[in-house]
Amino acid sequence: MTDTAPRRRGRPSRTQSADAPAARDRILAAAREEFSERGYDKTSVRGIAKTAGVDSALVHHYFGTKEQVFEASIEVAFGPVLNAPGSIAEGPLDGVGERLARFFFGVWENPATRTPLLAIVRSAMNNEAAASVFRRLISTQVLRRVARQLDLPDAELRAELAAAQLVGIALLRYVIKVEPLASADPEEIIARVAPVVQGHLTGP
What we know:
Layout: H1 14-18, H2 20-42, H3 45-52, H4 56-63, H5 66-77, H6 79-82, H7 84-88, H8 96-109, H9 111-126, H10 128-150, H11 155-175, H12 186-202
Helix pairs in contact: 2-3, 2-5, 2-9, 3-4, 5-10, 8-12, 9-10, 10-11, 11-12
C-alpha cells in the first residue's frame, strides 16, 4: 500500500536528505542570485526554491525565514571581507591602515566579489530586516575581531570609524558612482585613504 500521508512542512524526504549538501549549496546560490537581481523586498522563499529546483519547504527546513536565508547567503558572499581582521596581524601596526585599505578595495575591485557585495549593500539600504542582518554581520564578524587585534583604548570605536571611512567611500564609488571618485585609480584612493584609516585605528 502506497503511503500517501503528507510530509510535515519543512521536513525533507529521504532522497532530499541524502542530497542535503548539494541541495543546500543550490539554495544558497539561488538566494544570492535572487537577492542580487531582485533585492531583499522582492525576493521570496518560493522564488529562491524555484531557482534552486527544490520545494520551498526545503528552504524553510534548512534555513528558516527569508531573513535567515539572506544571512546565510551573504555570509558566503561576504566571506572575503570576513578575512579583513587577518590583515591586521600580517605586519607591524604602523602599516595596518594601508594593509586594510588595500585589502578592502581589492575585494571591491574584483567583479566576482563586488557583485554580491553590491546586492548586500543595496538590500541593506532599502530594507530594515536586511540592514539588521548586515549590521550584525559587520559588528560581530568584522569590527569586533579587528578591535581585538588592535588591543588599544577605545578599540571598537576605532574599528568602527575606520570601517565607516572605507564603507562610505565604497558607497560613493561603487553604489552611487559619484565622479571623479568612481573613475579614480584605486591606487590613488588607497594612497589618500590609508593614512586616514591608520589614524582612526592607531592615532591618539
